[in-house]
Structure formats: C-alpha cells, structure tokens
Amino acid sequence: QKRLARKFEDTAIDLSTEAVSFIRKNRDKPFFLYYPTTNIHFPITPNKRFQGKSDAGRYGDFVVEFDWAVGEVLRTLDELNLTKETLLIVTSDNGGRPDPKGMGKKGHNPNAPLRGTKRQIWEGGHRVPFLVRWPGKVKAGSVNPTTICTTDFFATFAELLGKEDGIPDSAAEDSFSF
To answer: What is the pLDDT at residue 136?
Structure first.
C-alpha cells in the first residue's frame, strides 16, 4: 500500500475533516472519538489560511487553528443534534510553551499567573485547561476546583457508566472519579 506524504501544515485540517466524517458516519449510534490534535506542539506549522490571523506570531496562529479545529467538531455535533447526548472534553498534556518568539511582548502569557512552562516542574508546566461540554449534565460556565489528572478518566467514566464495581483491584489503582 502506497503511503501518502503528509504536510505538517495540513494536519489540523486533515484531522478535523476525519473527525467530522467519523461523527457523521456514527451519528445514529453511541460512539467514542479520541481526537489528539497536534496543535500546539512542534513543529509549529499553521496552515496558510491561519497564518497572520493572530497578533502573536506563528504560535498564536497555530492556537487560532486549534480553535477552528475544535469548532468544526462542535458545529458538527450541533448540526446533527448530537450536542445533548455528547460529552465533549478538551484538555492538554502539559502547560504552554515558554514565550515562543516573543508572544509575551504581545501581552500573551499562556501560563499566567503560574510559574513555569512546558517541560518544567512548576505548576505552569503541568496545570492545563480542562473544558467540558455536556448540556443537561454539566452546567455551562461552572467551575470545579478539584485537582484531577487524565488517569482519573478511567474511574470517572466507569462511574458514569455504572461499571465502577467491575474494575479489578489491579486496574487503574491511581484513578479517582471526579
């Protein structure tokens, strides 16, 4: 089978197209979509249609592209009337990058007011956004101060599905339902 060459600058567009296609194909049955966008990791390669869209350089443009990609998923769920039945989570693996190419000069500090950045031990390197959209289940605009970790997804989803009693003692020992 011939492998197609992928251009880094097309990754977000290609992934969002695939995600939207998956949602459309599975609209009539329960589905799980894990959508690990490459934005905003290296290489910082916003597509031409997003270049110059922010006042924060290429990194800022890459963030704008990320917002667009998530928006495509949200719009599709809304269009197909799947919003109320869909738990959508947007999170990250670690904190923002250290002042990429002068973003701070534009008044943007992705980790403010926390100390540290990606790959560092301080909170700014590890505290990340965790956004949830689940109408009828999670109140819009609500805030929960609980400290969580992505390992907590296991226990949380098990509880949501009523399966917490089925988790063996040797599985997900560090997972706690939030």
So the answer is: 93
